[in-house]
């Protein structure tokens, strides 16, 4: 095991020593900035509907046990939308990414604790589907033939995997900060 910093690539520790400068000067700084911008940008995109309707999640957050919902719903909207902007810009990166990590970890827990279920259709719905109803496309009939269980299982898996990616991404940013191309670096101060 090496005692080198994680993002330092000394030539004598690389299988391809001539790549050291490429990794140190280009790949890692730009790769980290791109990763930070993608995570922050996606938080902005996902946060926009919540900013437009900041009280839309009041009952949802109260059902999770966060009272009062009228306080937590707009706070979460702001953290996701404006926090995403700050993460993308690399400003106050660590504390904002940490706050978003907590929020995203709760989202991950929610997806595991409250799965989508095993059916979209009741038995009557499956019978209507099988009767050749003109309300369903051929692809819709295929996806709902088992009542939607297979479709919901794939949606559940995607929700869980997306939440794992988001949570881990925000946690990495909280751990390593904004990186070389960040406003934090220009301010010469970091958390």
UniProtKB/TrEMBL annotation:
Protein origin, superkingdom: Bacteria
Entries under InterPro entries matching the protein: DoxX (IPR032808), DoxX-like_oxidoreductase (IPR051907)
Keywords: Cell membrane, Membrane, Transmembrane, Transmembrane helix
UniProt topology in membrane: Multi-pass membrane protein
GO CC terms, sorted: plasma membrane
Primary site of residence: membrane
Regions crossing the membrane: 21-45, 70-89, 96-113, 164-183
Pfam assignment, any one: DoxX
Residues in the signal sequence: none
Intracellular or extracellular location(s): Cell membrane
Similarity comment: family membership: Belongs to the DoxX family.
Protein name: DoxX family protein
Species: Marinomonas arctica
Lineage start: Bacteria, Pseudomonadati, Pseudomonadota, Gammaproteobacteria, Oceanospirillales
């Amino acid at each position: 095991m090496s005692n080198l910093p994680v993002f330092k690539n000394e030539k004598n520790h690389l299988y391809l020593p001539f790549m050291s400068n490429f990794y140190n000067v280009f790949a890692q700084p730009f790769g980290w900035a791109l990763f930070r911008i993608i995570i922050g940008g996606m938080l902005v995109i996902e946060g926009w509907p919540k900013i437009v309707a900041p009280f839309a999640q009041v009952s949802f957050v109260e059902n999770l046990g966060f009272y009062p919902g009228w306080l937590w719903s707009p706070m979460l909207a702001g953290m996701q939308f404006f926090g995403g902007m700050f993460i993308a810009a690399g400003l106050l990166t660590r504390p904002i990414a940490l706050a978003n990590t907590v929020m995203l970890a709760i989202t991950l827990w929610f997806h595991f604790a409250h799965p989508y279920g095993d059916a979209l259709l009741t038995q009557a719905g499956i019978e209507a589907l099988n009767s050749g109803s003109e309300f369903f496309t051929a692809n819709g009939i295929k996806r709902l033939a088992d009542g939607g269980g297979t479709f919901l299982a794939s949606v559940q898996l995607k929700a869980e995997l997306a939440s794992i990616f988001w949570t881990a991404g925000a946690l990495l940013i909280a751990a390593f900060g904004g990186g070389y191309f960040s406003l934090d670096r220009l301010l010469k101060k970091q958390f």
